Amino acid sequence: MKLPCHIHALFRATGRRLRLTFGTLALVIPALLLTALAPAPAAAAEATAPVPLPSLSATTTQVASGLRRPTALVAPDDGTDRLFITEKSGTVRVYHPDTGLAAAPLLDITAAVDESGNERGLLGIALPPDFAESQDLYLAYTALPDGAVTLARYRLDASRLEVLLSQEHAEYSNHNGGQLAFGPDGKLYWSIGDGGGSGDPFRSGQRLDTLLGKIMRIDVSRACAPLAYCVPADNPFVRTPGARAEIWLYGLRNPWRFSFDSGDGSLWIGDVGQGHWEEVDHIPAGKGGLNLGWSCYEGLEEFEGGDCASGQEYTEPVFTYSPYTGGCSVIGGHVYRGREYADLVGGTYIATDYCSSTVWALRPDGRGGYEEAEIGRMPTQVTSIGVTVDGEFYVVNDLPGGLHRVSFSREEPTCRVDRKVTRWGTGTTVDLTVTNSGDAPVNGWTLAFPLSFGQTVVSDWNTDLVQLSNTIDAANAQHNATIAPGASVTLGYVASHTGDASPPPRFTLNGDACAVGS
Questions:
Q1: Which of 10, 56, 455, 496 supports an S-S bond with 375, CB 3.0-4.6 Å?
Q2: Are 406 and 418 in contact (CB under 8 A)?
Q3: What is the CA radius of gyration of the chain?
Q4: pTM summary value
Q5: How confident is the model at residue 2 (pLDDT cuts 50, 70, 90)?
Q6: DSSP letter assigned to residue 291
Q7: CA 135 to mean position of chain CA atoms
């Protein structure tokens, strides 16, 4: 449901950054409208409670191989059931579920593409709403001879490539961004990284005179002719002296993948971190001009040596994780709005990580926060998650170059963790009760969970606990190594904090997600 333009997101000031509590709005307003319009209770359909995230399981099935470093995939809404898959070298391949991966490419722009370096090449693809008639598609790539990040329109009916917009990017080969997507407003959105290197050496993230470190919004409709594109009059920096008018959001490091939720029009962004934090941002529909923090912040942490300015408001991510989870680069995904698994993951955002292959599930909790869980593993080195016209998920992975269909199922957790929290001043005591809810004994265990940013464990009991950044591995002590079916063990810790004393939001026991109690 698209919210009326006069309804705005709720804000909560949090230190120097601004938290967008859009999760509350996205759930509460539709609920209020439905309540007002619903028939009498006797005639109304009974609401179904969402499946708890730890009860979800994501799996994949490989359906094609032979792709050469695929980078993105998109589905044309033309009744053909095809998928278009970009390859790093500059080709677009076609997959059909009945006939498989076509040998001949749909198009080949390798003569225009600079694929030197691991992160350069053909990076993104988007299809306009009128693709079935126009046969136009849009490509993001690094161009020869100097790696400029380039947006172009390719006309299939004429086999013609038309460059629309480019940004110099010669000094470093990394952080090119490259995501393209049409928003619910019909405008084309495009992401570019901060220019590469380490630590934002050009201070691109906070500058408005460059397209580096930004998400852009432009109009590529026929109404702009003879111009290659138009800048929408309601873009946030159209009237800002010295600013690039194409900019929609800024303060990004390398927004490799972002997507729009077809249910409410909100924008989800996976922004790849420097080395301490990977982050996911969630932006209300139509909310441009926000500063997402880089390089003043990496995740929730102030970045040492970063570009901070007094008086700035920075929008916090809704989810972060550290590389101590095994991750290295967040791969932003989509909110599931398909039919096949609607009763399981409808309205749930699914993302992964290039190195750990963890499947992350996020969902607004109705209280301004987000539920989160690890719900499975993707194939190794996934580079992109794509959605069919019907809303079903596919992923491509870099090496060895495959296409995989994503499935979801309900599997009840074999463990449960109940939390008892006592807070005081700058400290908190957390007692955890871990119950084996499966039918087999657990012999030797490690309970893994994150702490909120700013928390540090100062003592623990009934466990051998190790903290790396915000990641905790709590292993069994000698006396409690076995947990029989139905039995429980207790452990706990004392932690200091810098303002956020909230308990851990998720747990895994020997790698399996646990249900979370009080």
A1: 56
A2: no
A3: 23
A4: 0.91
A5: very low
A6: B
A7: 29
